């Protein structure tokens, strides 16, 4: 990341807008997932964005200008069963960039965190499973997700208005985020029920 950032700065002199968008998803149970898979997901989703941001941040601070964005997920705000590695990486991402926003405000640098729901991409197909192999399934929710171009345009619009934290999810995921905060005990019961149902479907 450091060498890539250095090459970009040598070519263009500075970066006005950095969008951290690389990511990998995960499907599996905590009990059956190798620790290396957790590390792999964290390395890409969290440390990748952190490393690139830190590599370019000094130049933004020096210019007292810049906008840093990261594509997190609604799962950076709530966690659902069988997505532990992914949700953990997105929670960490949310926390890091919330801290960064506060620390660089004095330098005139903007930080935006985008938390989309399902987007119509190959994210689920390329997801890793508990043993590190590819999931190779296009989930129904992903297939019916929002168009990536639409999400990109909304992001650009929000960045132009210097929005700091943007939830780009449907009604149910958005309600779940508030539900998790306002009534956590009931939210946990619902998630446990969901886990049992998904486990039955996989075992049947």
Automatic annotation (TrEMBL):
Keywords: Membrane, Oxidoreductase, Transmembrane, Transmembrane helix. The chain crosses the membrane at residues 166-192. InterPro entries: NAD(P)-bd_dom_sf, Sc_DH/Rdtase_CS, SDR_fam. Pfam families: adh_short (PF00106). PROSITE patterns: ADH_SHORT. Belongs to the short-chain dehydrogenases/reductases (SDR) family. Putative oxidoreductase. This is Dehydrogenase/reductase SDR family member 7B. It comes from Polyodon spathula. The gene is Dhrs7b.
